[in-house]
Design goal:
Helices cover 36% and strands 23% of the residues. The chain is of the alpha/beta class. It folds into 2 domains: 234 residues, ATPase, nucleotide binding domain (Nucleotidyltransferase, domain 5); 247 residues, ATPase, nucleotide binding domain (Nucleotidyltransferase, domain 5, 2-Layer Sandwich). The longest helix has 26 residues.
Length: 487
């Protein structure tokens, strides 16, 4: 059996951890996955954590499994990507004290301690309006109620940078991940003394910044032996999962990319640092050296869809849902609003639900609820796309799509028709973050095979009809806002 060269990409998402194996042609050879386990912290109203040591054990098992299944591969490089906003807190010995995921909001109680002026100042530097989503507020939550951890804290790492540290023993923080901390000057591409002072966080806990695609180091001897990986394999700096997913689509400057995953970022690649005077957008660093990403986000769209599948289709494959959706004509029965976010709204909806005619029709079935959720996703994406275009004009008649949500041909067609734009999908879109990690490895070795990946195109259809449904959805969402007295 001929030996092939390959890369390992560690992808730590919100719901699961994956280890992907790709060859140097950018082809995904295999993926092994496991669920990420979260723990509630009852010291806070809304706090979650994970055990980093347990997560590392899962990663080791997944690597061993995928290498056992593909023994003809020699690993040349390893990189990592992960959920944004998540961090791991380390002590001075390099031990992992606690992992805080993106949906940990232990800092929420202390948001009100910062004035409007302070928050606006932070937005101008960090590119995002402060909230408990971001790392600085998580650290404030730890400081206020977990002194056992805070007193030992010597450094913080993004989750992907932490994985790379576990392979090499080298500390570092990649720029696209640093964008999510509220402690990083996005324009200047450096840690911010001013933001560290504002949030009263010691700058010494912030590791050296590292460029995506650069060398972290070599595998430590014990890891190389434990995993039976070539000791000459290199570990490369990865980056945030959204940015690596964007990279996999190979968009041009000023293109828009929609990443349909657990959440749905709607982003535009821009050359100059830009913020919105109404605070509707985030500005992030991309994984290249010079590009910025202007972002709106439709929120937990994919997670809603997954949970509805678990309720209505617990034992069926997604293909069954797709077939039932395609069988629907124009009798969609109900409309939904399920917590999707719209950047133009000052405050998000905390309640939602389905609305349908009464008495309940005998035609109402499970697929109508799933359709309503899918339609809510599509309309929310359109709203965020429109908002992004208000902040930075967009005239192209297309956008790029990637992420698992675009596996649905129904969502592709609905979204193309609703936005009146073509959707470009590049091969490998459904594992976009892993594909982006593979590209980083290829670029390090000077290989350009990814340039040959095929593109499929979805064209708008039936626009007038979908626009009428969109107006119906807007009316329903507006009614919910009035019902719950939200401005």
């Amino acid at each position: 059996m001929a030996i092939q060269l390959g890369y390992l990409i560690i992808d730590i998402g919100t719901g699961n951890v994956r280890v992907g194996l790709s060859n140097t042609f950018g082809e995904l050879i295999g993926v092994e996955r496991d669920n990420v386990n979260y723990l509630k912290d009852n010291l806070y109203p809304d706090a979650l954590s994970f055990n980093p040591d347990e997560l590392w054990s899962q990663i080791v098992v997944l690597i061993q499994r995928i290498l056992k299944n593909h023994p003809n591969f020699s690993i040349q490089a390893i990189t990592a990507t992960s959920q944004r906003e998540g961090i791991v807190i380390m002590n001075s010995k390099g031990d992992s004290l606690i992992g805080l995921p993106n949906h940990d909001h232990r800092g929420r109680e202390w948001e009100s301690e910062f004035s409007k002026e302070d928050k606006e100042k932070a937005y101008k530097i960090a590119g995002r309006y402060p909230s408990s989503l971001f790392s600085a507020m998580k650290i404030i939550g730890i400081k206020n109620r977990r002194s056992d951890i805070y007193n030992q804290m010597a450094s913080i790492l993004s989750i992907s940078d932490w994985a790379q540290f576990k392979f090499t023993g080298v500390l570092g923080y990649e720029h696209s991940q640093a964008s999510e901390t509220l402690l990083y000057d996005v324009r200047k591409k450096e840690w911010s003394d001013e933001l560290c002072y504002l949030f009263n966080i010691n700058k010494s806990i912030l590791p050296p910044l590292r460029q995506s695609g650069s060398l972290v180091g070599s595998l430590s001897d014990n890891i190389s032996t434990q995993l039976n990986i070539n000791p000459e394999a290199v570990v490369l700096v990865g980056g945030a999962d959204t940015q690596l997913a964007i990279k996999s689509t190979q968009p041009a400057l000023n293109n828009i990319v929609i990443v349909s995953g657990t959440t749905t970022p709607v982003v535009k690649l821009i050359k100059e640092y830009k913020i919105d005077e109404k605070f509707r957008t985030w500005t992030n660093r991309h994984v290249d050296d010079e590009t910025f990403i202007l972002e709106t986000n439709a929120g937990v769209t994919g997670l809603n869809y997954q949970r509805l599948k678990e309720i209505f289709y617990p034992n069926e494959d997604y293909s069954i849902i797709e077939n039932e959706l395609q069988s629907l004509t124009e009798n969609f029965q109900c409309v939904a609003s399920l917590g999707s976010l719209i950047s133009d709204e000052k405050q998000s909806l905390k309640q939602g639900g389905f609305i349908f005619e009464v008495p309940i029709s005998h035609q109402l079935s499970r697929v109508h609820f799933v359709w309503a959720a899918l339609w809510d996703i599509a309309c929310s994406i359109k709203e965020n796309l429109d908002c992004l275009a208000k902040v930075d004009n967009y005239q192209e008649d297309y956008f790029w799509g990637c992420g698992g949500g675009f596996q649905s041909s129904v969502i592709r067609q609905v979204l193309a028709s609703l936005t009146n734009k073509k959707i470009f999908i590049r091969e490998g879109y459904n594992q976009a973050s892993v594909s982006g990690g593979s590209m980083i490895c290829n670029e390090y070795f000077g290989i350009n095979h990814h340039k040959n990946k095929k593109i499929s195109i979805t064209y708008p259809q039936n626009q007038a009809y979908y626009h009428s449904l969109y107006l119906q959805w807007k009316t329903m969402r507006s009614g919910l806002r009035e019902l719950f007295n939200i401005c």
